[in-house]
Amino acid sequence: xxxxxxxxxxxxxxxxxxxxxxxxxxxxxxxxxxxxxxxxxxxxxxxxxxxxxxxxxxxxxxxxxxxxxxxxxxxxxxxxxxxxxxxxxxxxxxxxxxxxxxxxxxxxxxxxxxxxxxxxxxxxxxxxxxxxxxxxxxxxxxxxxxxxxxxxxxxxxxxxxxxxxxxxxxxxxxxxxxxxxxxxxxxxxxxxxxxxxxxxxxxxxxxxxxxxxxxxxxxxxxxxxxxxxxxxxxxxxxxxxxxxxxxxxxxxxxxxxxxxxxxxxxxxxxxxxxxxxxxxxxxxxxxxxxxxxxxxxxxxxxxxxxxxxxxxxxxxxxxxxxxxxxxxxx
Length: 330
Fold this sequence. Notes:
The chain is an alpha/beta fold. Helix content is 38%, strand content 17%. The protein contains ten helices and 14 strands. The chain has a seven-stranded parallel β-sheet, with helices on both faces. The protein has a three-stranded mixed β-sheet with strand order 12-9-14. Strand 5 (112-118), helix 5 (141-160) and strand 6 form a beta-alpha-beta unit. It is globular, with a radius of gyration of 19 Å. The model has no long low-confidence stretch (mean pLDDT 96).
């Protein structure tokens, strides 16, 4: 049985990765300060250590108490707009804490590392779909901080032999098909939970930011990938790191859906329309972001089980409907 340290394992994507590891029989230690995650999102079979990554002494204690086969690093600040207001805070939290974690792992002899990275590295992409060779040019401090962590990992590989995988997500969505975990942010910024709650009458009508983009229906197109499929990708790259060198992968379904198409999918799945109005564009929003995931598919055998937008919406709707207060901690 393998043992893994999962930082941010009480958050949205992290908690689903913890479930995937436990489902295959692995042992999991979650390190999370619960500033954004939820204690209730951590399964009873996992060990929760509540502490911030900034606590270097606690990090050393964790690595002294357990020997890990790898680290899966999800803990980060991730709001683009917030990063534009507090860039140094994002650098300190995302880059500083990640460097501290990488150093602790190396000192403990744990030389496999999987980073939760982001498609925000690409800014306004040079081409669509976006492959791994597409030039990186983050348009915000959040994306820049993740790029810097990838750079730190590259140096850790070169000098210390750390093997790493950087997984660049597009739009994580959906929830555990068994209903064990779901999406619960405060504040909530993601389209699917906002739209679902609007349809359920739990929040005011949704504002769609712009309907005059150069897309078929005028609304932005994004690549929605099911969170369970993201978790599966983490398990697959862990296996690859046992026998291969470091790697960077873009993860998406390879098919984009517009905001309007997502709202239509919610209506099909639930029988309820999403009340909404059209607002102005948000500054910096690209018209289309779609991933090319051929490299991940070819090298790991990964393919999305929930590639259909209705399937993604169905799991998200089920969890939101069953959990009107999210994890019920506020």
